[in-house]
Structure formats: C-alpha cells, structure tokens
C-alpha cells in the first residue's frame, strides 16, 4: 500500500519542541498529582520488601541529577506505596497528547517523526485506557514505565539521524547507538525475562522496581491505533464464526453476546454491526462504556437487565443490526439468558465469547459477579488473596451458565484472552475429553475460526495516515481495495473469499467513520506471535510452546527494512504465556521504501506460513508451495506426511 504523508495543517511546533527538549528540570514542573477527570489504573500490589522499596526508589531517582533527589524522593515513595508503582505524575505533560501530523514533529528524519506520531497516539486520552499511568489497553499494557522515559525518548527521536538507532529496554531508552541507514530506527524489547523467573508475582516486583515492563502486543511497540485496529480481525472472526457454526454469511437476526468495551474488546460492538448481527456487550466499568457510546461505537446503552432482554428480542425479531452495551457483569447476563431459556424455551443467543482481560485476572482484568465495581477495586488492593478466591468463584459460575447455554445450541469460542485457561485454573468445567495441552471444551477462535486464515497468509495489517487528512486516507483505502481486487481475480475460491472479506472491511470502515493510515499490524498475526492458547493453538506437532517463530520474525523484519521492531513477553493471554513481535514501516513513496516493503512484508508473512506448513497444516502447505512458485528465491523445507499410521504402530510395538 502507498500512503500519502505530506499534507500540511497549521502546526504546533513550539509545543512539540518543548516536548522534545528533554526532561524539564529547571524549574521542575508543578506536581499536579493524578487528574480526577481521567480513568486510572487499579492499584498494583507488588508486595515489596523494605529493601526492594529502597531499590525501586533508587532506580527511579537515577533519571534525575542529585540536586532534585530531596524533592522527588518523598513523592516517588508516596506513589510507590499508594499506587504500587512510581509513575512520576509530576512529569505528565500539560500538552494534549495526540497524533499530530507527521510534518509537525521537530525531527531530523521522517522515520523518527513516524515513531513519535505513533507514541503520541498511544498516549492520547481518547485512545489510552489509563493515560496518566501510560497504559494504552488491556489494563496493564504500558507504553513506558514512567514519564521520565517518555521525555527522554521524545528527545532522542528529535535528535536522531538516519545513522542512529534508539535502543529500548522495557520502556527505558538505553540511548542512541550508531547504525546504518538501512537499520531500524528503534529496537524495542519488553519483558525479556529469564524463563524460570517469568512468573506473574516476579513481574509485579520487576515492574515496581522499574526494570521490566508488560507492553501487551501493540502498546509497548507504539503500534496501537485504538479499537479500530482490532475491528478488522473481530469482524472477520464474527463472519467466519457464522459460516462455521451457523452455516451462513447472513447474520441478520443472529445474537452475539460477549463482554468488555476496553481498548481491544471495544472493537466487538462495531464489528458486530459491520458483520450485520446483534452484538450485546457487557461492561462493568462505566467509563469505557460511556466512551464507546460517545464515540459512536455503541448504538445503545442500558443498565437495566429487563430492557436489555427486551431489546434483544426486538432486534432479533426485526433482524436489525444493533450494538447494545449492558452496564453490568457478564455473569449476570449469561445467567439471565439461561433463565429466559429455561422459562420460555427461547434461546436468545446464537454466538458467544468473552474479552475480559483475563491475562491479568487479579489486578483489574476481571471483575467478579459477587462484588460491585467499587467493592472489587477495594478488595483487590486490601486483601489480594481473598480477591483471588472471589474471582475464581465467579469464573466457575461464569462457565456453568455458558455450558448450559451451549448444551442448548449456542456456539461459544475463547477469544484468546486466557478465559478458558484461567477458568480451568479456577476449577471450572472446561476440560475436553482426550484433548491436548492447548485444547478445552470450547475452541479458541484461532483453532476453529481464524487459524486457517493465518495458514493462508491473511492477518490484520493496518496503515496509519500520518498526515491526519481524511482525503489522504480515502485515497489509500481506494488503492488498497483496488490492489486486493486485482489479486483476488486470479485466486482460488477459498482465498478469494478472504480477499473479498478484506475489501468489505475497507469499504465498510469508511462508512462507519473508522480512521485507520505508517504501515503496521497487530502482533496477533500469521508470524508475529507464539501463543499456545491463541495464535499457535492450532499447531499440533508439539511446537505450540516454542517461540522460534516470533523471535525470527522480529530479527528478520529488522534487517529487511522495518522502521522499528519490537519483541515482547506476554500480550493477549498474559505474562509468561506468549512471545510476540511487531514492526512499524514508514512508506514515503520512494523506491527505497517500496523495496523495504516488498522484502520485509513477504518475509513477515512467509515465516509463519512456512512454520505452520512444517507443523502439518495442509492449507499452509498449499500456500507456501504457491508462494515459492511466485518467488523463485524462496526455498522452504517441506514436510513429508506419514501416510500409513500402521508404520508408527509397528515401530512402537516392536
């Protein structure tokens, strides 16, 4: 795809120059504390020893000259004890953070400006879940660990030349290092912890100490673009779920029930309407519910269970697409739907899933049905062990209702948020008889819905119109749709359907006032992520728990032309459960950019298709075979299948 980048609007160079001038130290900015008008992250509970608290404070102060230590030490210590982390609220910028057009950033290279634009977008209060805690989405997906890191990164990027690379260690800018013009301008790693120490408890301590960070998938890599970034994949999931479970492309009058309206889960409402069905999404936190409604993502909101059921019946009867936000607990909603079925025999739900942040179940990612939102937040910080027990009780109730509705004919899938994994750990009935290590009673959406798409080489890429001009965005949409249409003309029926779905997405996104334009993708993709309970849950050769693909993806993108690359521990399913890599690639219309895009994007997809082919996936085998015919320099080791299972039987019995 080509992206237009140079559209000018009145600039704010003076304000952006201030942001790029380094840490404000003379004088120190006023300490305004936390802004009561924006949502804030739950209080963290790292359980530091006295010596660890001392170390956390020492680590935070090393960003500042000793002349400021007496002033800052006491307030940092208070933040640590009150909120469980040193965010450095004093240094939260007063400038409204948002994605200003690329030409407004005071930089020596446009590549650096593109990174700055994406960072600013990730921290925009209209985008970020908890902006003052530098959390973009998922409850704990950090852009940086503290505000000192933000100021230093913006300064480094403004000074960078095309012979330097910014090196990022879990939010911390290690500095600018000499490199080549063809090298990435930023190399990012988040949470690279020695495997035996990659536990949740260890993470809480390391984050509090300021030495590691959970970047989710696209928060710490600066590639998040709001829920719109996942609407594409969510729409494809819902469409393909209808094809697989309901046997139809027509989802009118069909009801999809799920939960979560946060940074990623917020996409579900818009995706349901684009797919043509009735989406009912429960959310316990009023702030994201209100935000999605004000943004036009939710058509209706109600806190009345009776009204919710009434609207489901009406929309189902009229077959009118609807996105309905229920302000309440998802467990209550599932139990009410079960009660309605048992009372009337009407199954009011066809498709079901869940997008609570269960990668982070005991620190605000999941709110138990027994407690109000406020009560849960209080118990979370005052009696963590009791809160964990209550969460597990809620998960067992959650699954019990889903199981009964599933027995009645509803089709449920896990959305890769560790829902079934944590339910299993809580003792809920989710076991699959005779299932493997990555299988549960219900499939993950990768196993049954999206897995074949990945094997065919399709995934959720996005492009960001860095001019900020809607007309430029429309041009890129038309280019992309035209190119996809030309390619699909010579594709097989199965592959043509996927191209058509993507063309539909581009056309519908415009109608629904989506605003997607630097090229990137979700780390959740063909090659970017090794996640045995999500992206690689349909890999059955024993390698689902191996992470070579994600690491190779990160390294391969770096020397094939990416503007920046990132490698993360965690993301989606949670810390210690996943390895994922991503990239950003600036396209400026030059021949050099075209060469980079062709080389890097072909690798970025072929890497994962080749791995899936080697694992035994027949669709991936066909895809990589066809790709080798098109690209003669590509040579992939192809597997030979065992055609006679008796050969194995005889060998093992002998």
Automatic annotation (TrEMBL):
UniProt pathway annotation: Amino-acid degradation; L-histidine degradation into L-glutamate; N-formimidoyl-L-glutamate from L-histidine: step 2/3
Residue ranges of the TM segments: none
Alphabetized GO MF terms: urocanate hydratase activity
Names of the cofactor(s): NAD(+)
Domain Urocanase C-terminal: residue ranges: 452-514, 515-625
Swiss-Prot/TrEMBL catalytic activity: 4-imidazolone-5-propanoate = trans-urocanate + H2O
GO BP term, pick one: L-histidine catabolic process to glutamate and formate
SUPFAM superfamilies (UniProt xref): Urocanase
Name used for this protein in its record: urocanate hydratase
Organism listed in the record: Scophthalmus maximus
